[in-house]
Amino acid sequence: MLPVVALVGRPNVGKSTLFNVLTRTRDALVADQPGLTRDRHYGICRLGDSPFLVVDTGGLSGDDEGIDGLTAKQVELAIAEASIVVFMTDARAGLMALDRDILIDLRKRGKPLIVAVNKTDGLDETTSLADFAALGVATLVPLAASHGRGTDGLLEALEPHLPADAPEEAPSADLGIRVAIVGRPNVGKSTLVNRLLGEDRVVVSDIAGTTRDSIRVPIERDGKKYMLIDTAGVRRRARVEEAIEKFSVIKTLQSIAAAQVVVVLLDAAEGVSEQDATMIGHVLNESRAVVIAANKWDNLTKYQREQCETSLERRLDFVAWAERVFISALHGSGLRELMRAVDRAHASATKQFNSSELNRALEAAYEGYQPPLVRGHSPKLRYAHPGGTNPPTIVIHGSRTKHLAESYRRYLENFFRKRFKLIGTPLRLEFRDGENPFAGRKNVLTEGQQRKRQRLIRNAKKR
């Protein structure tokens, strides 16, 4: 198990910036706005000789109510599991009363403590550190996280506190099926993640837009490993005005691309909205397996449930192959069936084919319904072979395949889907025409053919 280093401090002191520098990623959302980070964000630092886990936390504002109170609980959980705490301060703002209050609380925890004085770029380091020497902490490290300066000094300060028997490299075991949970704001994505984990891993609030970043959480359920990705809610483009929300939407789209299975969470009381259909469209553009989950099912009457099912049938006809599960993230009903649907979708998306079974299926499909004629000729489908997985891809070779009607392409897709029992995954068919060996070659007539051609022309003129 890797040692854990928690980054703690007031809002907007540069914790997320330092997290990205240490992990050499852009996983943490960074902006010049206080209170942007709310959940715990984990990453692996390999800059020094020994790797360790870095935990980015939300800023402590001193308020125990609302979102700030929920963020403070997440910080407490990060400190409790940390081996070392890096207390970050702002050199430009100077030592503030809130910094002293946070430090008093950290000292009660009995954890090794390092004070990182950030934003020292352009300032005299000695003068900047002198103000924070009054805190009485032995280790003060000057930083300029936005420029990546001072990280070597921080790593040297951390090294004595890291366990000597720490593993040299992070575990490379399979993290399981990557499952992204997406949907509109306030449909219960974070509640679903917490319910699956059995703990308050991410911040949950009735306020829409609580989650701003994509949080990855590994879990093990029924002997199988998963990597859950909690994402920010996506609204209609016309309503997205703040730059922070635009970056959150980009993070969500990146999470869809990185996932193997995407759970699109809907509000059962509202049915399928236009934004829900658009979100499913983004998933299909990335060719990811998808499961439709209607949340808040427990609060509906019998009539409302019938209306919801009708809405799903009518509005989601373009993904009729996707499984639909009705759940209650708050009470935990339907979660077992949801994870089984995720397993089935993943198994279908990663299914391996062989050429012989594909050719038998293609022959049966061709005999059952031949393609319509094109300029008096019927397109020929000669043979097929596998072209990849996630999504499963079938490459079909033949002649005049470019002129195949869209209806016949859908027929082939549905035939293969039914034949191989593919559930919850898109199916990609690639058609390739065989090369014409006589293309570009001019037919040169022999002398006898030329004489015969001239006789035919003279006879035609006489008539």
TrEMBL record:
* UniProt keyword list: GTP-binding, Hydrolase, Nucleotide-binding, Repeat, Ribosome biogenesis
For this chain, one GO molecular function annotation is:
hydrolase activity
The entry's GTP 2-binding residues are 183-190, 230-234, 295-298
Q: What is this protein called?
A: GTPase Der
Q: Which Pfam families match?
A: KH_dom-like, MMR_HSR1
What function does this protein fulfil? GTPase that plays an essential role in the late steps of ribosome biogenesis.
Every copy of the EngA-type G domain together lies at 3-166, 177-350
The record's listing under SUPFAM superfamilies reads: P-loop containing nucleoside triphosphate hydrolases
GO biological process terms, semicolon-separated = ribosome biogenesis
Quaternary state and interactors: Associates with the 50S ribosomal subunit.
Give the protein family. Belongs to the TRAFAC class TrmE-Era-EngA-EngB-Septin-like GTPase superfamily. EngA (Der) GTPase family.
